Structure formats: structure tokens, C-alpha cells
Amino acid sequence: MKKEDTGTNQGSELGDINQWLEQQQSEGLLNCAPFNNFFQDQFFVLLYLYDGGMPKKQQLIKEQLKVISNESSTEHQRSEAALALAHEVVSRADNRAALIQEDLERAIQWFDLAINFGSVLAAADLAQLHLASDQLMLHVLSEQMVLPTLVNLKTGEREVKKTANWQAYHAWYRGIRATLRHLDHNFDDWDMQTYDAAFTCILGFLTLVPGRRWNQLTPAIENRKSALSWVEPLWRDLVRLSPSFDLDSDADRNYRQEQLQASLLAMKAEGIPSGLQASQQAKLVPSGSPLQVRVIAAEIPCSSDRTENDYLKQFEPLRELIELIRMPDELQIQGIESALESEFPWAHEVIRQVIGELYARHRHGVLVLGMSPIGLVGLPGSDKTRFCHRLSELLGTPNTVINMAGMGDAKLLKGFTRGWAGSRPSRILEFMQQSRVANPLFILDEVDKAGRASLNGGDPQEPLLDLLEPGNSKRYQDLYLLAECDVSHCLYIATANSLSPIREPVRSRLRLIHFPSPGPEHTDTIICGMLADIERSWRLPLGTLELSTQERARLQGVAPRQMHHAVIDMLGSNDNRLAFTRQ
Fold first, then answer.
1. Domain residue limits at 243
2. Cα 243 vs. chain centroid, distance in angstroms?
């Protein structure tokens, strides 16, 4: 049999594909691929839908598109596929800096998707892509330099400046967070390339300063110094668990330790970015590190029960210095304000008062994130609780909801006395122990619906008198831990439909703000915010979920609480496959 000419055969296959494409376009059928038609990439949609023969390279791309679209694929498989597709888009130009705008945006979205599925390699590559827009590249390993350096892509020379654009900085931070997700499994199945990517993300994050041009609609990126409490131990775990593919493993590990020490010294040399004198800083910041505090100073008394003693040991970290989230700078506060105004336009006065206090604290030199206790009072379904969640996310501090509706005693807030079944500390101390943050946000939901005082459990509103009073909260007594606890840095927002059931002493401790209900003209804004919440919950790239004009019209006038259920139903409907991107 005569051997076919490979080049001729490949050309014939591509011709068949192009002919099929023209036919599909004329019939308007190329609009049914997931992830918003692969981020509006017509070439990928073509390969995904075409069933005829095609060259090997295109066949490989098609297989990767099938993997990323298949929900039964593992996260590891989908992250590898998304990363490969990102590289495919990047390869369309001679170099990263030469990508046309459409392909640059698509590549970023593919890298984002890979990071969402846990790819550390994607984070390191995404940072390099953002640096390339400034004609820069991060060079990490060098015999002459322990710390990473920025190299000019045009000249090949080392850049003296130590400033990276904020997008690259954020990509490195996301890479570190992705690394954390793999720590529970001791970085199983990682190769040396992935370890190097993790080291690169940490080094870039620690040693380079983010540029001052912040995206006004995204949450503020966590400060490097406040992240050290967990980044430094993570680095040491990476060094300890990384396999060595070199003959001299000790030399490699020693070099990694030198890199960490050099990074810490470089950060120390920068100092605290504040115009305050050292004496002023000492007055405003707790003793010890400017970003850390001890919640429990004395020893936690032991129990006669061994099992209970084992449980009490979990709270020993609260006797050590734990993290305090830093106050955002003025530019970051402006971004938080813009984001809230775009998502909650009917709550302008609420935003003005909340943001006003942040401005006041920042402008007077406060370094630690803090806020007066707030009481949001409004009708059911006005999105009070969602507002609290978004404020917490934008401030970069963890939050939890304490539902006070029907609460019949004070045990959840004061702790359960030892010796009884179900004994446990207060939810305040539990969450601080879980989050390892000393100033989280507690959402006291529906405080007006708290039950009446029981005979043995006390009035559920009574503990609020101490929690919301700065002086008393510094020496808060937890009935289970039997120790004085400093919970004075915690943030509190109470929500209520009515003021009358709330005791006057509690009301006097809250900064009461009326939270208005949204009008019909705000329906589109609520839908956009709701879709963004679902995307974050489902770990989808922002902007991949959409509802049609007809579906949005059906939601006009629906209360936000009921609207959420309706949106889920619409996304799962067989008639809405375009919006339901993870099919």
C-alpha cells in the first residue's frame, strides 16, 4: 500500500474543518460550549464540537477541552487541562508581551481557572504573564543572587526596581493559597517543577512590592507582613517535604533556607510603611508584633477529664501571638467603597457611615483593622447579611454568622460550663481558634429575635453587654476555658428587623444604622451580585454565569432571599445550558 503524504493529509483535514466551520457559522450553531464558549474562543469551540478527523495537535487540544468540560474529571486533571490550554493561547504570539488583547484576556481566564482547580504552576505562569505586559520577567535561581530579580525582556538586563504590578503580586498570593490546599496531603504527586513554582510564588510575594495602581473593584490583597505568620511555616514544610532530584540534597535545602532568611531581612529593611513616629506606633499597636496579639495571657486551667484536657489543648495557640488583620490604606478603602456602592446602591448611607469610620481610623494612623459595633436595622430580605459578608471579604478578615433567632440562653456566647454533656467554649473563642485571627467579623444575625432568659442559661443578650464594650471585652470571661480572654479587637455587626425587642443597654452599645430595602430598579444589580456569589461558591471564574434578558425580567420585584433560589433553578434548567457553564 502506498504511504500517504502526511502534509497533504493534514492539509485536507484542516480544509474539511474550515468547510464545516463555515457551515456551522451560517446556521448560528457555534454557541453551545461551556465556560462562556471557552471565553469566546471560536477556534476552541470549533475543535470541541467537530467530530471529523483532525491533526494530532488539534486532537490533543480537543481532548483537553473535553477534560475541562467534564465534571466527573478530577480537579487535578482539570487543572492540568486548563493550564495546557492557557499555554496554547499564549503560544499564538512569538512572546508573551506580543499577545493581542483578546488572547491575553483568554490566557488570563484559563490561568485563573487552573488556579481555581488548585494549580500552583498556573499562578506562577500567570504572574509572569502580567509582568510581561511591563516588559519584565522574574528570574529566581541565580548563583550570583539569592533573592529573585526582575529582568528586562528587551535588554536582558537586571532591573534595579523592586516593584511588580499588582496583578502579578495577586497571582503570587493566589499561588501561595493554592499551595496551602495541598499541604493536607503532604504535596502528594508534586514534581520538582511544582515545588519550584510554589517557592517562586512565595519569593515574589515576599520580596517585591506591589504597584500603587489597585483595581478598585477587587478586595484588597493581604499585606505581606501580616501573611508571614503562616507563609514562613509553609515554606519550611515545602523544604522538608520536597523530594530531591539532585545528588546534593543538603546543599539544595540550605540554599532554600538562605532564600527565606534573605527575604525576611529584605522585608525588615523596608520597615513599617507609615508616617508615624515609633513612639506613636507603640501607642496605637498592641505589645509584641504590630500585627499580632495574645488572646489568652494566663494558663488555661486543666480538667480532671483526660478527653476534656485533649480538647483544651486545641486552644493553646490563643496563648501565643496570633494575627491581626492590618487596616487597609486609603487607596484600598476607596476600592472597598466603590465595590460596595456598585453591589448595594440602595444602601448608600450605610456605606458612607461604615467607610467613613475606616477613613477616620486610617488618617489618624491606626494600623490594625477595627470598627465600632454596628446595628443594621431593616426589613427582611433587604440583603443586610449579604452586605456584612461582602464587607468582611473586602476587608480581608474572616467572618462567621451567629444566628440569635430563638436563642434561649447565653451559653453560645459565654461558653458551656465544664462537666456537662456538650460542654464547649463560646463561639467567639472557637472561631478565633479556628481562623487564627484576632480581629474577625462576627455577624450577630436577627438579634431582635433572641429568646427570653431561661432559668439556668441566662439572657442571650446579656453577653453582648461585655462583648460590645471595649473595656470589658479585654477581660472577657469564657465559662468553659475558665480564663480571661482579650476579644476587644473583634468586629461586630448586628442585624435586626426591629429595635423594640433589643434591650436599651445593648442598643446604646451599637451604632444603629437604617438599612433600606432595594427597589425594583435594583434587580439587575442584585442579580449580578448573586451570580458573583454563586461563582465564588462554585469556584468558577468571575463572569462565567449569565441569565438572559427574559429570565432577568421574570425576577423583577422578587425579594433577594427568594431570588437566590430562583436563580439556582434557572441555572440548572435544561433550557439554560449556556448559563450553566459546568455541564
1. 74-267
2. 29
299-355 tens-digit pLDDT: 999 988 888 888 899 999 999 999 899 898 888 888 899 889 988 999 999 999 999
Same structural domain, 240 and 378: no
Is 541 exposed, middle or buried (CB count within 10 Å of its CB: 0-12, 13-18, 19+)?
Answer: buried
Grid cell locating 515: 438599612
Looking up residue 248, the CATH number of its domain turns out to be 1.25.40
Q: Which three cell numbers stand for residue 524?
A: 439587575
| Residue at 127 is within a domain | yes
Q: Are strands 491-496 and 483-485 parallel, antiparallel or unpaired?
A: unpaired
Count of domains forming the chain: 3
Tens of pLDDT along 161-199? 667 888 888 899 899 989 988 887 888 889 889 999 999
> Does pLDDT of 4 surpass 50?
no
Amino acid at 571: L
Residues forming beta bridges with residue 149, ordered by sequence position? 139
**Are residue 491 and residue 531 in the same domain, yes or no?**
no
The three grid cell numbers given for residue 234, joined into one nine-digit string: 509553609
Q: Are residues 361 and 489 in the same domain?
A: yes
Name the domain boundary from 485, 514, 543: 514
What is the edge-to-edge ordering of all strands in the sheet holding 374-377? 399-403, 441-445, 491-496, 374-377, 511-514
Q: Could you tell me the CA-to-CA distances from 519 to 309, 559, 568 in Å, in that order?
A: 54, 10, 22
- Residue 299: how many other CB atoms lie within 10 Å: 10
Q: How far is CA 204 from the centre of its chain?
A: 18
- Measured in whole angstroms, how far is the alpha carbon of residue 65 from the centre of its chain? 27
Please identify which residue in the block is written with the cell numbers 529593611: 269
CA torsion sign for 339, 341, 344, 350 is positive
Alpha-carbon distance of 466 to 481, in angstroms, equals: 17
Largest CA distance in the chain: 96
Bridge pairing between strands 441-445 and 491-496: parallel
Backbone dihedral angles phi then psi of residue 427, each to the nearest 5 degrees: -65, -30
Q: Which three cell numbers stand for residue 279?
A: 513612639
* Helices and strands per DSSP (H, E), number in the chain: 24, 13
> Closest Cα partner for 130 from 183, 102, 166?
166
Domain boundary (233, 251, 267) is at 267
